[in-house]
Amino acid sequence: MERALKVSGLSLEEVDIIAYSAGPGLPPPLIFTANFAIQLSSEYEKKLIPVNHCCAHLEIGKLKTRAKDPIFVYLSGGNTQIIAFVEGKYRIFGETLDIPIGNCLDVVAREMNLPMPGGPEIEKIAKGKYVELPYVVKGMDVSFSGIQTACLKLLKKGVSKEDVAYSLQETCFAMLTEVAERALAHTGKKEVLLVGGVAANKRLQEMMNIMCKERGAKMYVVPQKYAADNGVNIAWTGILAYKSNWEDPKILRNKINSKWRIDEVNITWI
Ligand code: FE2
């Protein structure tokens, strides 16, 4: 916080609101952050705004790309969801039934002794030939745990890292592109916006771009600086909430909600 104030040249007295990430996530860091934010807000008498972590990833993506009303493909180490704003809420059209995509990439990368985070390392070596992996799309949902296990088995059998990395990317990204395409078709929207840390993957962008072009839609990617977790997306979403007189008695009372789903967020700014 000290560094942020220094860079912006502001003092806390000049700040209007204190926004913090209130969930979803692991309770210990959520509680730690909430306590810090609560202490600041009472000490400096600033309005306190709990922000939904997923919502912040979507809002910073819209701000930075100027996408207006996209299908969000939200892919990170902790989340995998296809989301769109429909009838007053961000609604989840599809999601992972088990592990998030980023987690799947990390586990396979670790087995290959690649540095963490594993996603970018998998991308670097994904230049092999295709080895068949399970392709798991159920309705609008996806599953990565079987693919992860299959990759670990292939590595044990002596299949090259390059082949496994290539096949893993091709399979998982094809599944996500399929679900995103159906969300586009269902909602009639004309934009796709990739957010979250995995959005930086060039092969994912390429596959989504081809799909979008075929459907006459436009694809956007959140700038890398704002793709992974950051304070700016929380602050920006806090501003949107504050300016639109947002309130939610439950989260304001409980301070955090480790399972706060985006479709439960009261959206007052759209
Ligand atoms: Fe995140």
Number of helices: 10
Q: Supply the helix-strand structural class.
A: alpha/beta
The bound ligands are:
fe (ii) ion
Largest sheet: 5 strands, mixed
CATH architecture of the largest domain: 2-Layer Sandwich
Q: Which percent band covers the strand fraction?
A: 15-25%
- CATH class category name of the largest domain: Alpha Beta
Q: Could you give the order of the helices and strands?
A: HEHEHEEEHHEEHHEHEHH
Number of domains: 2
Anisotropy-based shape = globular
Which regions contain 5 or more consecutive residues with pLDDT less than 50? none
Q: What oligomeric assembly is this protein in? A: single chain
- Rg: 20 Å
- Number of DSSP E strands: 9
Q: If you had to describe this structure to a student in words, what would you say it looks like?
A:
There is one protein chain. The chain has 270 residues and is of the alpha/beta class. It has two domains: 2-55 and 228-264, Nucleotidyltransferase, domain 5 (2-Layer Sandwich), CATH 3.30.420; 67-226, Nucleotidyltransferase, domain 5 (2-Layer Sandwich). The protein contains ten helices and nine strands. The strands form three sheets. It has a five-stranded mixed sheet, sandwiched between helices. The protein has a two-stranded parallel ribbon with strand order 1-2. A two-stranded antiparallel sheet has the order 6-7. Helix 3 packs across helix 9 (231-243), helix 4 runs parallel beside helix 6 and helix 7 packs parallel to helix 8. The longest helix is centred in the middle third of the chain and has 27 residues, at 161-187. It is globular and about 60 Å long. The model has no long low-confidence stretch (mean pLDDT 97). The protein binds fe (ii) ion. Fe (ii) ion binds next to helix 3.
